[in-house]
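Friendly challenge for the regulars: who can give me the structure tokens for this chain first? No prize, just bragging rights.
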Amino acid sequence: MGEHPRRTGRNIRRNRQGGRMRHFISAWKIGGHSLRENYKNKFFSLFIIFAGVLIYASLLAGVMAVDEEARMLTDTGLALMELMTLAYSVLAAASAITREIETKTIYLVFSRPVSRPAYLAGKAGGLYAAAALMLGVMALLHLSLIYSRGFTPPPFYLKAVFFIWCKILMISSVTLFVSLFTTSTFSAVSIAGILWILGHFTSEAKFLIARSSGAAALALSAGAYLTPNFQLFNARDLGAAAPPPAAPGFLAAYLLVWMAAPYLFSLALFRKKEF
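First reply, four minutes later:
Bragging rights claimed.
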């Protein structure tokens, strides 16, 4: 006699749940390995040391500002933290998968029961965690400098650091996708750099779109929609008296879209590669 349909349905659901759990465990392990690779990388330490030196060098700018020393220390430190995390994260994302393809390490990974979605999710998660670690270390250095000068950080400080991380999550996701179809790490880094710059001029692009027509307006509109709007997460704007650029719910949804969409496109490209 055949197996009871209800029991068969339960077995299918159990197998699906077990498959999802295996994917999650694989992604978690790959993410942990990726994070360890990043913080053991000598460039990771060099970037943090260099950022620390620059942050403490910003004392000079603060002293020169006299009455605005506290604001200058905060703004300069946050800007340096953003730039250093951006530089490392883009470089790491551009080479995260291509390096393993070139060294044939990826063949060893897929000789085990690891799915491509889990591998890709783990790699992305490792990059996100490395960026968070780097920002955390630099924020501690920056705060120690602010307190040593007898100031207190502004109320928006932690939110500003979090917003920097959000921007890094988006550009890292996009760079990981770009690295899968470009010919070199340099190409991926260059494209990411261009997108980073364009993403900080979205308001200006909208102004040009409003004043344009025809093919030019269509091209500008397409470029604006295909570029992350980093202005929504500008840390420097948090200290201004102006209202926030968007509601928290919209910002969360926007962030998720710009993390999920590059991941899905990356997965589509990744499935076509033969390992």
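Residues 26-272 form one domain. The chain has a mean pLDDT of 80. Your move, everyone else.
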